[in-house]
Amino acid sequence: MDGLTIVLHPLVQHKLTLLRDRNSSIQLFRTVVREMATLLCYEVTRDLPTDPIAVETPVATTEAPAIVGKKLVIAPIMRAGLAMAEGMLDLVPSARVAHIGLYREPVSLHCVEYYFKTPEDCAERLVIIVDPMMATGHTAIAAIDRLKEAGVTDMRFVCLLASRPGAEAVRAAHPDVPIWAAGMDEELNDHGYIVPGLGDAGDRTYGTR
Q1: Pairwise CA distance, residues 199 & 81, whole Å
Q2: At what angle do helices 164-173 and 138-149 cross, to 10 degrees?
Q3: Which pLDDT belongs to residue 137?
Q4: pLDDT tens-digit profile of 68-113?
């Protein structure tokens, strides 16, 4: 699918299998979500611009590449995206963090916003939106809509698992926002869950139902 990157690194795929396993403990699930987010962060930031700077090593002075421009923003969709944000912050601890509070209304499957807070100059930065699951795509679309209303123009969406219908919906609504995922399943069930999927990522991360 145009605009969708599936990260096929063996470590990423192995960890996705651990997340799919219904017998994985809460502790294991939470740890693996964080680890996968760190690995996916490598992929989604692969093309960040760099410029050479002067560095004095213990042996000599040289020029070496350094990232230029304003620090990026990580924007987890609460609550399930919080564990992914922590994994990305392990890699880029100086990143700013935006919080997007959305929940899916269980009957209509449409999104309801309950919280939204971003850095003041978020519109001038690259924003990486994170949410473990892209099921119907409604939550992702609502989050991107809200960030665009705030003036953000440079966004990337990262999830652990997407459904084909959800990814197609997001790409149709926002073709300017590329998607990175560890995997994509073909179907949704009547409740809007990805099949075979891995269940409710928020519940499995935090031990709730």
Answers
A1: 15
A2: 20
A3: 93
A4: 888 899 999 998 999 999 999 999 999 999 999 988 777 776 788 8
Q: Report the distance separating Cα 133 and Cα 181, nearest Å.
A: 9
End-to-end distance of the chain based on CA atoms, in angstroms? 33
For the chain, the domain total comes to 1
What's the number of CA atoms in the CB half-sphere (13 Å) around residue 104?
20
What are the structure tokens assigned to 36, written together? 């996968």
Distances (CA, A) of 114 to 56, 86, 99: 49, 21, 11
At 15, which CATH number? 3.40.50.2020
User: What one-letter code names the amino acid at 47?
Assistant: D
CB contact at 8 A, 84 and 128: no
Q: How many CA atoms lie within 13 A of 114 on its CB side?
A: 9
